[in-house]
């Protein structure tokens, strides 16, 4: 199995910044098959949505609402993914989940709360 351990959430004022980290550990056989890592978020009463993702080639995609404010990056050697969040808005408040796609097998972190106060 693969475990995803997240860190970096918290409470911040609007306009502030936070950096989320997610590290994969566990089965080497499964970890080396990870080809996409990303961040999802789920706000109360809303569906979980993809925020940003990055593949092993470095290609990225973002949900429209965070473009220009959030940056996803990764350290492929360590199977770690980061999400730098700048110019945070109250509507960014949600539980953020790390995801790893190991060629069709999905793994999820436990989630980290991000709260942006106005």
Task: Name a few traits of the molecule.
mainly beta
What is the topology?
Elements: E1 2-7, E2 10-13, E3 18-26, H1 28-31, E4 36-42, E5 49-55, E6 60-62, E7 70-75, E8 80-85, E9 94-102, E10 105-108, E11 112-117
Parallel strand pairs: 2-11
Antiparallel strand pairs: 1-3, 3-8, 4-5, 4-9, 5-6, 7-8, 9-10, 9-11
How would you explain this protein's 3D organization?
This protein has 118 residues and is mainly beta. The protein contains one helix and eleven strands; from the N terminus they run βββαββββββββ. The strands form two sheets. Strands 2, 4, 5, 6, 9, 10 and 11 form a seven-stranded mixed β-sheet that branches. The protein has a four-stranded antiparallel β-sheet with strand order 1-3-8-7. A hairpin with a 4-residue loop joins β7 and β8. The termini are far apart. 31% of the residues are buried.
Quick summary of this structure?
The protein is mainly beta and 118 residues long.
Termini gap: 40 Å
Shape: globular
Largest sheet: 7 strands, mixed
Low-confidence stretches: none
Number of helical segments? 1
Beta-strand portion reads: over 45%
Relative helix content:
under 10%
Taking Cα atoms only, what radius of gyration do you get, to the nearest Å? Answer: 14 Å
């Amino acid at each position: 199995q693969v475990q995803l351990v997240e860190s970096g959430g918290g409470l911040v004022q609007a306009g502030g910044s936070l950096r989320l980290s997610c590290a994969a550990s566990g089965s080497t056989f499964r970890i080396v098959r990870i080809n996409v890592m990303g961040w999802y978020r789920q706000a109360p009463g809303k569906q979980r949505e993809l925020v940003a993702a990055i593949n092993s080639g470095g290609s990225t995609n973002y949900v429209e609402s965070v473009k220009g404010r959030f940056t996803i990056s990764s350290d492929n050697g360590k199977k770690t993914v980061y999400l730098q969040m700048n110019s945070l808005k109250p509507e960014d408040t949600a539980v953020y989940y790390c995801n790893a796609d190991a060629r069709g097998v999905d793994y999820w972190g436990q989630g980290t709360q991000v709260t942006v106060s106005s």
